């Protein structure tokens, strides 16, 4: 997921991006899969500014050299690997082109073939609008709750409605993968705990306690929707959330797996995309995917 502020940071910093190593797990001796395709939004691209790469997608997709798909591909030693993940992607960008600053990411499904036998998918957060909403919650006054004030009216929670509406889109995405790659083992990832329920940490992350708690609950709703889709479609859900408690953006460097509003990461040191995984978060996702694959 990438919101408006993050896209502006990406566009301004694209020319200054540098590459760095990703700390991938050790490759296994015999490949279990022949063709691996990674699909998804910025939480699958593990959006980065300090170690972004244009190897597979336009540079402004902010795809990290140390992203979990690249770690998984290295650990599995897959002969063919294509990474279509891109910051800001929605389900629309599975079948349609995605315009980003200075380039276009082709439809992500274009990377799928009849011989693809492994697919990881991380999608839904942008379809529900949760990424943009996180940035709407930012405030300079801890007494204000801009998200609750604008998105909740009595018993009507607009974000809950958005999440429910995204369910059909994620389902259709999985159906589209199966049509193009009927042999593929499909792993659907949820979103780990970048924000948590309960009080926030204003002003370190400038979101009021009420809005922080609401965001944490909306993330749980989003992940519950993804779990329903996985059950209904028969794909495997990779649960990255339940094993990520205590590593949200409010935690100190070296402990947090996602950054806050300040676009700087200590893991690795350098420019970061606000409210997105750092390298520790990407490493966690890779471990969970490999565990699901029995590695």
TrEMBL record:
<dbReference type="InterPro" id="IPR013830">
    <property type="entry name" value="SGNH_hydro"/>
</dbReference>
<keyword id="KW-0378">Hydrolase</keyword>
<dbReference type="GO" id="GO:0016787">
    <property type="term" value="F:hydrolase activity"/>
</dbReference>
<feature type="domain" description="SGNH hydrolase-type esterase">
    <location>
        <begin position="38"/>
        <end position="282"/>
    </location>
</feature>
<feature type="signal peptide">
    <location>
        <begin position="1"/>
        <end position="29"/>
    </location>
</feature>
<dbReference type="Pfam" id="PF13472">
    <property type="entry name" value="Lipase_GDSL_2"/>
</dbReference>
<dbReference type="InterPro" id="IPR037460">
    <property type="entry name" value="SEST-like"/>
</dbReference>
<keyword id="KW-0732">Signal</keyword>
<protein>
    <submittedName>
        <fullName>SGNH/GDSL hydrolase family protein</fullName>
    </submittedName>
</protein>
């Amino acid at each position: 997921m990438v919101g408006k502020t993050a896209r502006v940071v990406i566009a301004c910093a694209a020319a200054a991006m540098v590459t760095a190593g990703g700390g991938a797990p050790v490759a296994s001796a015999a490949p279990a899969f022949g063709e691996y395709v990674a699909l998804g939004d910025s939480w699958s691209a593990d959006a980065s500014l300090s170690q972004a790469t244009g190897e597979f997608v336009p540079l402004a997709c902010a795809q990290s050299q140390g992203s979990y798909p690249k770690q998984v591909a290295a650990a599995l030693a897959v002969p063919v690997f294509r990474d279509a993940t891109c910051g800001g992607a929605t389900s629309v960008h599975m079948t349609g082109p995605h315009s980003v600053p200075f380039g276009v990411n082709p439809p992500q499904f274009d990377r799928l073939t009849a011989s693809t036998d492994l697919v990881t998918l991380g999608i839904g957060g942008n379809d529900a609008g949760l990424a943009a909403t996180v940035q709407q919650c930012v405030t300079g006054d801890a007494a204000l709750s801009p998200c609750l004030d604008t998105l909740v009216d009595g018993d009507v929670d607009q974000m809950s409605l958005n999440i429910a509406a995204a369910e059909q889109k994620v389902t259709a995405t999985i159906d589209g993968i199966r049509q193009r790659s009927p042999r593929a083992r499909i792993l659907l990832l949820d979103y780990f705990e970048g924000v948590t329920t309960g009080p926030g940490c204003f002003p370190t992350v400038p979101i009021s306690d009420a809005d922080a708690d609401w965001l944490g609950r909306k993330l749980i709703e989003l992940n519950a929707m993804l779990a329903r889709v996985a059950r209904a479609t028969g794909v495997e859900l990779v649960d990255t959330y339940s094993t990520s408690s205590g590593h949200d953006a409010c935690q100190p460097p070296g402990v947090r797996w996602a950054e806050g509003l300040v676009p700087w990461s200590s893991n690795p040191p350098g420019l970061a995309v606000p409210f997105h995984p750092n390298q520790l978060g990407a490493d966690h996702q890779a471990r969970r995917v490999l565990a699901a694959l029995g590695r």
